[in-house]
Amino acid sequence: MKLSGPMPAPRSDTQIEAELATFRACFGEVQKEIQRVIVGQDQIIRYAVMAVFLQGHVLLEGVPGLGKTLLMNTMGQVLGLGFGRVQFTPDLMPSDITGTRVLQQEPNGAMRFEFERGPVFTNLLLADEINRATPKTQSALLESMQERQVTIAGVTHILPSPFVVLATQNPLESEGTYPLPEAQLDRFLFKLLIGFPTQLELVDILRRTTGTVDGPPQRVVEDPSRISHWSRLLRHVPIAAPTLEFAARLLLATHPRDGGAKDSPARWIRFGASPRGLQAMVLAAKLGAVLDGRFAVSRQDLIDVAKPCLRHRLLLSFEAESEGIRPDTVLDQIVQRLG
Amino acid sequence: MSNRQTQYACQLNELLLTARHEHRKTFLIRSWGRATIGVGMVAGGALWLGLAAIPVIVLGLVVPPAIAWAMLLRRSTSLAEIVSRLDLSADSHDRIATEVDFLGDADPWRQLAVRKYDDWLNANKATVKYVRPKLWEVKYAIFILLGLLVLAHLVSGRGQNHSEAISDRPEPREPIKAAPPVRSASRSATTATTRAVSASSPRRAEPTTNNVHAASASRPDRNPATAGASAGGSQASSGGSGSSSAAGGSTCSGGSAGSSGSAGSSGGGTQGGSSQSGARQGAGSGSGQGGSGSTSAGASAGGSQASSGGSGSSSARSSSGQAPAGPSAGGSGHPVGGAADPDLAKGAPGGTFAGKGHAAITKEDGKLVTGQHVTIRPDRRPGGRDSDALTDGEATVDETDREGHRLADVGRPGAYDPVDLNRVELESLPASRRVIVMRYFQAMRAQALPATAPTGKDTTR
Fold this sequence. Notes:
The structure holds two protein chains of two kinds. Chain A is an alpha/beta fold. In chain A, 43% of the residues lie in helices and 16% in strands.
């Protein structure tokens, strides 16, 4: 499916229905094209593409060699977006990400500073092993991730749209790593856990990578502005008041307000999710409802996206860490209690 | 709502119409039930506090429906309440709740959702049903029922506990002065000064030559024999009046109790009978002797018969000698132990048994029978204690408190102290209020007794 050109905002329910149908088809095409390259990891692909259409950032966690970088690269090609990659190391400086001013000599011999853009000026930024950089360098992404702009020497530079950071971190290596601060974790829309492939998937990976190459993935979205258009469109998907109340209850249930009751899952949590997590959950639920063929958000949509939206926003207590309790387990219990 | 929106939401409207009807019906019944229970408890409390019954009952009939309708009007407009009563899965519930929320919104996105969900509702109409809510009252019905029973028990006055105050009552009782004779016919019967002494005060039970002691048990209702003794006392009082009607006016209960008493009672009766015979023969000193066994009963019965004999110093003795025996001419069988009243001596209805410093019970028709209406009034004779402060009141004889004490027994030894009658007006009180009065008697009696403690002197001469 080749889509190009901006579309006017739908004014009637018939136009809305048609527009959403087009979006669903496009989303399916993108997924399908990525799955030609990435074996398995269907949910990871789905959420990664969702994050792009929602213009949110994704934190990928998984062991090396699972195709994280390949996924980002493929997404950029399929969506027709610019792709940049930064390998985070302990000696990486903020200017290595955002860019810096360099002294340039003009033809007439005059010297002046010019802004040299960093790799952050792209649509899809792969921040590989982000937790290996120092907190100072990590913080260089804060402004760009939230405000989608970079301020250098008092000058603000707007990042291209869409701008999506796809960061990876290796859970196994702890030496020489700097855990991401909560403020930066909160800026990621999803945190996706890349699991190890199954035996069938491994066989398929071998068949595809060690045999003949099928060719690069096809570009589905010709005009990147359509992604921003759909992103704005998805925000119109309505959500009823009872569903919003349920989302708020779900978020509040992650806060240990009841003093850590014995039977409360919140007893494992030191700090709960922020309102930004609630926003992420509702936005993702809207997209999930549209992809499911519905035109309003349901509770199940919220529940479906609760884990990827909230798992990195929960700060577990020492007891939970010592007992091996994972955020997903806590979220499962919370959802179960809310019914 | 525009026609288009109505068209989109026709299935939802149909569903909501049905559900709202069911909801209103259910909620009205539930509200009425809850309001009735609440108002019923309030009414019970009002009755307990002695408020007028009729306004409370009228209030109970009017207020619950009004409250039910008010609650219905307030809550039946909530569509969310109705939707929450639909038997749906979580997903279906979300769809309908969303449709309800978007129903009146003109936003095209929301109207699209309404239209889509209405289509879905049309296809799944059969699966959507209204669920009648389970009333929490049913869950707690047993506790509510128990609460109502306790409330009814309290309102009826059956739950009062007087035993403690009665058991604390000090003995002996204050000696009672006999009423002065007013007629020559009864003068002979009252020449012997009468003194009624409680059976629990042996030192006062000693018979004397000229004084006749009518022994009475302190708790006639707890001992058949003593009940007979009291009955005998009543007969003695009647005899004291010298009136044939009064003599025949012995209470049925008292007579039967006396007859059904122990052998002593029978013996006493027999001996008393002989005394009565003697009295009829004009013997100035008909003497009866109480039988052994239940001595107090015998003594009392004997006393009563002897009092029928009336004239002279008839006496009945207990063979045991321990229990006070002795018929008395005009010996009072009255609970208060008062002497015969001049009015009663006349044989006229409304005659009063009066004792000094005590209230009197007037018999309306000359008989003191179960269910009879009696008037309680103070002793207004000169020298009567607190006579000015006492007020009249009415009650039925068989009206009892929770321990079974009859109201007519007010003032009877072991029952309520008549001194406290001056503090209440029983006639103006509803039945439930009288129970409180009885409790008040108990409380006041403890204060009144020290002032009325017997001096040990015979003041009846």
